[in-house]
Amino acid sequence: MNAENRENLRPDQENVLEIDHLTVHYVLEDETVEAVNDISIQLKKGKIMGLVGETGAGKTSTALAVLNLIPDPPGVIRSGRVLINGRDMLKLSKKELEEVRGSEVSMIFQDPMTSLNPVFTVGEQIAESIRLHEKCDQKKAMERAEEMLSLVGIPPERAAEYPHQFSGGMKQRVVIAIALACNPHLLLADEPTTALDVTIQAQVLDLMVNLKQKMNTSMIFITHDLGIVAEICDEVAVMYAGRIIERGTLDDIFNHTRHPYTEGLFNSLPDIDNRTAELKPIPGLMPDPTMLPKGCAFAPRCPYARPECIETPQKEQAVSDTHFVMCSAYQDPSFRIQRQEVFYE
Amino acid sequence: MEPNQKTVSVAKKYRKRSAFGEIWHRLRKNKGAMIGGILLLILFAVALTIDFWLDQELVIGQNLRARLKAPSAAHWFGTDEMGRDLFWRVLYGSRYSLAIGFVAVFVSFIVGVPLGAVAGYFGGAVETVIMRITDIFSAVPAILMAVVVVSVLGSSTINLMIAVGVSSIPGFVRVTRAAVLTVRNEEYVEAAKALGKSNLYIIFVHVLPNCLSPIIVQTTLRVASAIVSASSLSFLGLGIKPPAPEWGALLTAGRNYILGYSYLTFFPGLAIMITVLAFNLLGDGLRDAMDPKLKR
Amino acid sequence: MTKYIFKRILMLIPVIIGVSLLIFIMLDLAPGTVLDIIANDYSPEQLEELRHQLGYDRSVFYRYGKYMWDLVHGDLGISYIYKTPVWDLYMQRLPSTLKLAGASVLVSILLSIPLGILAARKHGSITDNVSMVAALLGLSMPNFWLGLMLIILFSLNLGWFPSSGDTEGIKSLILPAITIGTGLMATLTRTTRSSMLDVIRSDYLRTARAKGVPEKAVIRKHALKNALIPIITVIGTQMGRTLGGSVVTENVFSWPGIGRLTIEAVKQRDTITVTGCIIMSVIMISIIQLIVDIAYAFVDPRLKSQYSTASKRRKRIGRTPEVRANGT
User: Fold this and answer.
1) Which residues contact A133 (CB under 8 A, 6 or more apart)?
2) Are residues A222 and A83 in the same domain?
């Protein structure tokens, strides 16, 4: 049973987000960056999915495509569907898109320093979203904005201040407040804690998880920090060179790892029990996204690579009902990676 | 093996060019800059060689029987009130405009860049004094400054060059100072200071070479504005006087015949515009090529 | 705020002292004096008397000192040529210059900002390229030529507008305003475009779009307000420059403005009038700069908090006026 069949058999009404065969390219003057290549994701109501991968794996492009916000030019969505509550974001009119963005789906951007408009007060920036989507007057919207601020732990009277008067962590809280202002069904969080100090990271994470529970929001959490994934996610998708090479529940990915790249990610984590152990980074670099190999993109770095891995395009295979891996080596039933059953926690 | 080949091709694609090669590569892709550059090359070639292949008689010889003829196959730009062929006169005029443009900018460059560098590098009282004096000079509108300088020196080609040059000194001081400010606290400058190098050495060896691009761009664009200023002065009757085929002077002379013989003002002005446009195109292109961050 | 304005006035004083000294010395170096120009109106005895009266029998510094003494008492002196107070001369000419400067800057703002925004939004498109080529053409056209071409077309051939003077109201204003406005428009369009381009791909615009802000509001509200600082700077510079009088354009159209007054005064060695006009335009420019600075604070809250250190701030904003002169 492969992924496509499963979808056809059970069109899942509970899915807040469904991405089908999404492909996003950036067409530059003399080259094309193949950022996202034929990926599919489903996310159920109230769940958090961690989208994991190195810098440049296509995580942010995926999130932007969900909002249909790929900068064009140079970005082109080559194919695919992005269904939010059953509506295809890629087919909506401009006006419909503007209605959906910010109310049904919203996004927390990576860099809080540049994500806020420097010439408007934070209150105005939160209120703008509320005013647009809930058709209320400015005064009401400002009141709601102040509520949102106190919800994210900022004294409401600071609504009248400008972004430059806030610290980085506070700005990220404001960005979160903007994203959550209209109770979206789906929240895309693009490395919301990467730019922050470790102590602030924990606070912001707690805040997000709490808010998510309060509002029953589904979330795509983009990160390259497996620790955070273990802490908050229900499901995990691992991206490599624009493809999802392994996806499943937290347990599937962390305890029943299948893909050699995922294994490499875990191996390169420092071992908390054995601090003197040498780190084992994955050798080599991710391939240039302007000239992806025709076979498995990970093959040049893969310790298990076989000749056919380099030659043949990879297909997604089901390991279980929830667990999928994109590695042709598993066509050989005896194939195993070294790390198999590891139990976290 | 295949990955190996890939590495080779990647290496080829990202082969390192020298800084200059990189600028040239970007400049070459800029159509406007190339058009401007080619136009300027042609103009230079004409201006430098015209004495060798053009009979002076065509430029200054009068022919009263052929006066005020409209543009035709025989006289592309028509003839003036003395029957001189305007095309040859305009072509010959390129010598004046280019020479004035370059010498004037050379004057302001020689004075402005060191002043700006010193102001930016040392800061403090030195900077305050230089910048205040610059403020005073730029308080007088450039064209008026040039007029005053010409009044002092008398109108001749050399004086026109000096006048226009003086009036664009403040621009060079400002641009150089701003550029120097951005590199003055760089680590390599600190390092040179720590090594005990003299300030003069640091300015010329470490600081100025690293702020060349805005200065080069400024220079190119200034040549354009110097050409306009010089011909404006001629137009106001303060620069080169009419029988000489300088473009501003040609235009002034033509102005007397504006009723009915408008081509006499049209072509000299067109020549100025095309030259200035060429410098502007090249200047813009250089700016984009030297600072890809600013690329529009 | 009052303190700030006061500081600006204080900063003006050394510039005025310096500029007047500069003009006095330079015009003294120039051959001939105003007395040679007006010699025919007087008998030799009278002329000798006048020479003594005006201080031409003593050094230029004496005359400068005398002028400054009067200036401190609020007196710009009396023009030797026109035999009228310079203040009155200036005020006679000011309305024409104001009209011309106002009209050309206003037209340039109204046309350039929308065009610049459009070019930036359609970056790389035909619209963008065409408007940028047009702007560069506008920048490269010498004012005297453009003015003459307009006269040839619209006054001599079509007879729509007068070719000289400021006697027919709006009709007289149109051609000179286009002449000056073309250069201004070119500069302002380019500035608007490049400033918008800086902003248009910024993260905060993406945030705004992600919130569902309609595209029009993204550009007009979120982007434009951030792009305004360089635009305001250029408008201020242009306003200041045109208020000083546009020597060339006024000459082409025989426009009775300050530019022509100044240039005639230079030719006639009328030092007092030249200095007076330049001092007035320095003051004008300074007033406009003050307005611009206040506008900055309204546009960008980051600048408001730094108000007390205003001079430092201006350095940081980095005034980068376009260097091209159209030979105003």
Assistant:
1) A99, A102, A103, A182, C212
2) yes
Query: If you measure CA to CA, which chain B residue comes closest to A297?
Result: B3
Q: Cα–Cα distance between A6 and A12 in angstroms, integer?
A: 10
Q: Is B48 in CB contact (< 8 Å) with chain A?
A: no
Residues A81 and A189 grouped into a single domain: yes
The residue among A157 and B9 whose pLDDT is bigger is A157
Predicted TM-score (pTM) of this structure: 0.81
What is the span of the domain harbouring residue A141?
120-179
- Interface contact B3-A300, CB threshold 8 A: yes
pLDDT in tens, A35-65: 888 888 888 888 899 999 888 888 888 999 9
Question: Which residues of chain B neighbour C142 with C-beta distances below 8 Å?
Answer: 228, 231-232, 269, 272-273, 276
Mapping DSSP to helix (H, G, I), strand (E, B) and coil, where does residue A116 land?
coil
Contact, A100 vs A92, CB < 8 A? yes
Distance, CA of A56 to CA of A35 (rounded, Å): 8
Measure in Å the smallest separation between the Cα of B3 and chain A Cα atoms.
7
Mean pLDDT of C176-184: 89
Same domain for A151 and A14, yes or no, is no
pLDDT digits (tens, 9 = 90+) for B220-232: 888 888 888 888 8
Shared domain check, A203 and A130: no
A316 falls within a domain: yes
Choosing from A179, A204, A221, the residue where a domain stops is A179
Residue A110 lies in a domain: no
- Name the fold adopted by C92-303: MetI-like fold (1.10.3720)
Q: Are residues A294 and A200 part of one domain?
A: yes
Q: For residue B6, which residues of chain A lie inside 8 Å, CB to CB?
A: 291, 293
Q: Could you state, in order of their start, the residue ranges of all structural domains in chain C?
A: 2-72, 92-303
Which of B143, B221, B281 lies nearest to residue C247, judging by beta carbons? B143
Sign of CA dihedral B148, B150, B151, B152: positive
End position of a domain, from candidates A146, A179, A212: A179
Report the distance separating Cα B217 and Cα B284, nearest Å: 8
- pLDDT score at C115: 92
Asked if C301 lies within 8 A of A119 by C-beta distance, the reply is yes
Instruction: Label each residue of chain C as H, E or C.
Output: CHHHHHHHHHHHHHHHHHHHHHHHHHHHHCCCCHHHHHHHHCCHHHHHHHHHHHCCCCCHHHHHHHHHHHHHCCCCCECCCCCCEHHHHHHHHHHHHHHHHHHHHHHHHHHHHHHHHHHHHCCCCHHHHHHHHHHHHHHHCCHHHHHHHHHHHHHHHCCCCCCCCCCCCHHHHHHHHHHHHHHHHHHHHHHHHHHHHHHHCCHHHHHHHHCCCCHHHHHHHHHHHHHHHHHHHHHHHHHHHHHCCCHHHHHHCCCCCHHHHHHHHHHCCCHHHHHHHHHHHHHHHHHHHHHHHHHHHHHCHHHHCCHHHHHHHHHHHCCCCCCCCCCC
In this complex, do A291 and B10 lie within 8 Å of one another by their Cβ atoms?
yes
The two structure tokens encoding residue A308: 């056919």
Least confident of A26-30, B66-70, C136-140: B66-70
Whether A224 and A337 share a structural domain: yes
Q: Are residues A95 and A153 in the same domain?
A: no
How many folded domains does chain A comprise? 2
- Which domains can be identified in chain B, with CATH numbers? 47-294 (1.10.3720.10)
Residue A109 lies in a domain: no
State the average pLDDT over residues B233-262.
Answer: 80
CB of A34 within 8 Å of a chain C CB? The answer is no
Retrieve residue B128's tokens. 């305050």
**Are residue A19 and residue A166 in the same domain, yes or no?**
no
Check if A293 contacts B (Cβ < 8 Å). Answer: yes
**Neighbours, chain C (3 or more CB pairs < 8 A):** A, B
Q: Is residue A223 part of a domain?
A: yes
CATH number of the structural domain spanning residue A93: 3.40.50.300
